[in-house]
C-alpha cells in the first residue's frame, strides 16, 4: 500500500498551497535551512519539486538542529504499520495534529514548484 503524508498550514486547507498530501516515496531530502527552519523537498505527481519549510525552536547550541527530529518523525510516519489507512497526518495546524514529538514545529509553509536552494 502506498503511504501518503499530510501537511496543513492552518489556513483552512481550502486553497492551493495551504495543505498537501505527499507520497512518502517521493520525498527527496530534508535539510536544515537556518537555525529555526528545516525544508523537506519532494516531487509531485508530475515530477515537479515542491517543498515544505518547517519553523521551529533553535536547539543548535544544546541538543542540535531539529532536522534530525523532523526527519526521524517523517520516516516513522512513512513506515507506519498496516493499521494506518494509507494517510498519516504529520503536521496539521488546522486540526492541531503533530506526529510523534513534532509539537515543537510552530509553522509550516508549502511552496509548489520550488527551486532547490541547497
What does this structure look like?
- The protein has 118 residues and is mainly β.
- The chain has one domain.
- 10% of the residues lie in helices and 41% in strands.
- It has one helix and eight strands.
- The strands form two sheets. Strands 2-1-6-7 form a four-stranded mixed sheet, with helices on one face.
- Strand 4 and strand 5 form a beta hairpin.
- The longest helix has 12 residues, at 67-78.
- The radius of gyration is 13 Å and the shape is globular.
N-to-C series of helices and strands: EEEEEHEEE
Q: What Rg do the Cα atoms give?
A: 13 Å
Q: How many structural domains in the coordinates? A: 1
Roughly how many Å apart are the termini?
Answer: 32 Å
- Percent range for β-strand residues: 35-45%
Q: Quaternary status of these chains?
A: single chain
Secondary-structure class: mainly beta
Total E-strand runs = 8
The portion of residues assigned to helices is 10-25%
Q: What are the low-pLDDT stretches, counting only 5+ consecutive residues below 50?
A: none
Largest sheet: 4 strands, mixed
What is the mean predicted local confidence, pLDDT? 90
Report the principal-axis shape.
globular
- Number of H/I helices: 1
Strand order of the largest sheet: 2-1-6-7
